[in-house]
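Students often ask what a 'structure token' actually looks like in practice. Rather than answer in the abstract, let us consider MarR family transcriptional regulator, a protein of 141 residues. Its sequence is given first.
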Amino acid sequence: MDYGDKLFWLSVLIQRRYAQICAEYDLTSLQATLLCAVKDEPRQMAYLAASLGMTKNALSQLVDRTERRHLVSRASSEQDRRVIMLSVTPTGKVLAEAVFAETTKRLPDVAENLDADDQRDLERLATAIVDASGVSASTSS
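Now compare that with the structural description of the same chain:
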């Protein structure tokens, strides 16, 4: 396998582990990701679409499904009524925090067969990749 193949299979492994965690909370991976994206502060729908790599229409459909479960809510921005902000509800916040905590606890298990030095290297590289991508949680809307 070449480098691209290995990255593909690493992606599959991570996605499968994440999907398993999400299923334990009766969420799809996309619903859980959406909740985690807005768990700490409301976000603009346009920002979320761009950050999650979704079309605005696909995001709206995801939000519709998640909103029906009373996990998120939409509102117009106070600064610009044309801008729609997405917030997590109290129920959604509890669920998002639980999924996020479980994911950050269990996802590193994909590297459990690596020795301690290799695990630290993977953490360093993953941090550099995420920081360079601009998709980290600290990115403001």
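One point worth highlighting: The longest strand covers residues 72-76. Ask yourself how you might have guessed this from the sequence alone, and why that guess would often be unreliable.
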